[in-house]
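#data-curation
PF: Archiving a pair of folding outputs for the training set. Convention for this channel: one message per protein, sequence first, structure tokens after, nothing in between. First:
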Amino acid sequence: RRILEDGPDCYPISVCGASGIGKSVLVKKVIYDSLEMSTRFEMLAWITMMRPFSQEEFLRSIISQFLACSPGGRQDSVSRTSNMSGDKLVTKILQLMEGGRSLVVLDGLSADEEWDQVKSCLWDDGNAKHSCT
């Protein structure tokens, strides 16, 4: 229910449990792939955490998936992001998130340090939602 609430807040929703019990499958079926979610959120991204963590690849992955939600803009914009770094990638994500609701699922997030690395990139927009498995 909380993920469907309207409001200006941005907050994480965690799904915790032992490895291999089906947390990712649950989130994918119940949240990410549901028709209700696709109509409630303008931008959707399912990100599998990489190790070692690469902030730029992480940001490019979000941009690519957000652009897939935008008709007509994907190929041209994705190719332009290959030359972007750091702040420009964050700015691009925030531009894509403007004026709409966003859902970013972080699959395989397992340490506070990883969360610290990614939250600053995604926490600025009041309508963003994050699901961590």
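PF: Second:
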Amino acid sequence: MTRDESSTAEFRALKQQALQQAASSFRAAEDWVVFFRKVLGREGLIVQLFPGERSRQAFEQSDEFREIQRMLAKLREQAVPPKEPTKVITVRIPVSLHESLREEAHRRCTSVNKLCISKLVQIIDDQLIPSDISWRSPSGPGLSGRGDGEPG
């Protein structure tokens, strides 16, 4: 039996395990980046406990996951600079969207950068993400500049 096909009792136990281990990581975390990597990152706790897409999506709809998201938000309130190197991405957006983000950031008393990071670490329904059939994998060429599936 795969974890995707697991019983409701097993799923509940995994959710509790995820929350307990995340709480432990929360108490020990130096900063939000460490917590994110250990709990929500590509090789983190959630991926380990819920390796199947369906089980992970189900977990992401749970109260336990929302509590983990609150832990992350609490850590992000701290002014401690992360020790992990940062990367810069450039996102082309319409002026109207940029203005909306600036206004929302102002209303929330935060920076546009912090607001965007908050939005990026949230779970998005797959149906709300446009598909780009010409997208290439991160290990392949073409993720920057022309020829990467981005419109001209």
